[in-house]
## 1
Amino acid sequence: MIENERQYAVTKKRIAQFEASLASLRTTSAPTKLPPRLHRAMRESIESQLADLLREVAEYEALKAQQVSTLELHSLSDLPDLLIKARIARGYTQAELARRLRLKPQQIQRYEATRYYAVSFRRLLEIARALEVDVHDTVSLNQ
């Protein structure tokens, strides 16, 4: 998941590199040093990684353009990514979110880098409030 503009720029560069590699593999119809199965596996691997990166870029761009108004929470383990996506969709940088919470920007960077691993429940509620996020879901009791 792309979380900020720096990661977005890095991902865009990676996409260009993967596209160049893929173009090179496609134009080489019969590589002299690689068996056909290995050549196909390399091409399919690059295509798969490229598709993943393109999906991440599309998601980040949609969030940045505020085209997303609802994020689905399937389990509590999804909450960290949901909070990061909500921050992006609100148009807040990590520094802006930190300012709203009266924290240092580095603290938000750490929270997001660790996916809010050691954050208290109270702090999660504060972050959700600062992001103006309402979480509505049901709790299922597994039998």
## 2
Amino acid sequence: MPTTNTSGRRKTAVARVYLTEGNGSITVNGRDYKEYFPTLPLQYIVTQSAEVAGVAGGIEVKVNVDGGGIKGQAEAVRLAIAKAIVERDAEKKPLLRAKGLMTRDDRMVERKKPGRRKARKRFQFSKR
């Protein structure tokens, strides 16, 4: 079966996923996903799409991920895997959509405004 190529984004993280038939291994930037994402919540996020679709043991995933923090990268990988599964089998889309795995979370960090310490923080005001 040919390779399915998709991408996922979250905050400033971008993940490119190459999905093929295989033994269920997930490789992120040349390392095992359990080594790249050391905590259990992040590992759960990465495998969530495959678990919900019921294809966890039958696919092999290779991921290139860049930018953002570790949580944003994990969520970008989750979205990319979900999109790749739907591209292979469109019947899985309602399962993934019901869990909210097909929607890109478009929330970004608000930019810092000039003359302020942060995006919204103002200097202390005291009336004398």
